[in-house]
Write a structure and sequence with these properties.
95 residues
């Protein structure tokens, strides 16, 4: 345990790394993996506007796209609590 005169800090770091393709990069999408479902649902929704007979499925596909987007966008944030405390000597207070 650190003291005021001799503090020490611990940084714990977790990282998730996906395996990268060894190809030339032209056959993969350039998006984070958590957005792949939203991309697919969005493409299906856009295609339903253009193909014949797709209008009756458009509302369902739009709802699926919105749900996939909201899920992916809500995961794109930092969920860990973090607290930064300045050193007391910088504030002009000496203990």
């Amino acid at each position: 345990q650190g003291t005021i005169n001799n503090p020490y800090y611990t940084l714990v770091y977790w990282r998730l790394r996906r395996i990268q393709d060894a190809g030339n990069g032209i056959n993969v999408e350039d998006i984070p993996f958590r957005f792949q479902e939203a991309l697919i649902a969005g493409l299906a929704y856009k295609l339903s506007m253009k193909v014949q007979g797709g209008l009756e499925r458009m509302q369902t596909l739009k709802a699926q796209y919105d749900e996939a987007w909201d899920l992916a966008a809500s995961e794109d944030r930092e969920k860990a609590p973090i607290r930064f405390v300045p050193r007391q000597s910088f504030l002009g207070v000496n203990f």
